[in-house]
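Crash report, auto-generated. Payload:
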Amino acid sequence: MKHTISILLQNEAGALLRVAGLFSSRGYNIDSLHVAPTQDTSVSRLTVVTRGSDEVIQQICNQLLKLVNVIDLMDMTDDMHFQRELMLVKIHLNKGVQNSIQQYAGELNANILDQERDSFVMEITASYRHMGTILERLRTFGEILTVVRSGTLAMRHGVGNFDH
Amino acid sequence: MKHTISILLQNEAGALLRVAGLFSSRGYNIDSLHVAPTQDTSVSRLTVVTRGSDEVIQQICNQLLKLVNVIDLMDMTDDMHFQRELMLVKIHLNKGVQNSIQQYAGELNANILDQERDSFVMEITASYRHMGTILERLRTFGEILTVVRSGTLAMRHGVGNFDH
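Recovered output after restart:
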């Protein structure tokens, strides 16, 4: 099962390397990963989507917590969390689909970044669960040239002890 | 100066580790980084925002290209590229600002994910250059509890040789 783990890291050289090294040396899968600053410039947030049984995920979390620079972490897999993703897509449109893709962009509340003769670029924000379905639908409008995905961003509902 | 480098990677164990290791061992800064699949499941795209003189950036690119699993890369810093970022923000609102923050969310074309008594969660997509200004403005509505940022997603304008 897919799990989304959110990790607060001291923003120091080698912090990302240690996390990536743990996943690599133990053979844990990384579906997506992103790391960026929080509002505190000394702390970054790293979110990693991985797969495994509950037991393996528990192992990963325990090992992560032992790493230098890991302040705290939370498994954000259940419905108590927002899980969102940003995707940029560039499509070479088939003829005559301009209106229908604009309508679909409207349904998705997507932002059209560019419309040229030979390319159409849109930006979509959605639950990561829906991205596959959205890509399938977009393929009906033309050839997908480029996909850039952020990976999952996760945030806990309500006010809790993992805010930063 | 900040540079956004987009890297196509073979999706193999240790690929991320080698990239992170290069930045760490040479002391190159990482402002943000994300890695996620492209539409080809054997290829991932890694985007890293780093800082340095043109000479240093050229060094980084040359060294990255020598790494196992790096297929290709492109410096996506100039105006020939879309540079977008997703940010989730949770705010403890001051009294009486509900209407004004909803109006601001409308101006940003932001999506309100949650409104509870003690927290307000919105999702904002914008050029990464504007995120600092947006955060400053959001602080006028209350205390910012959590910020989750994707880091920069970059895509080349038009149709080129770096589509994937």
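Post-recovery validation: Chain B touches chain A through 58 residues (CB under 8 Å).
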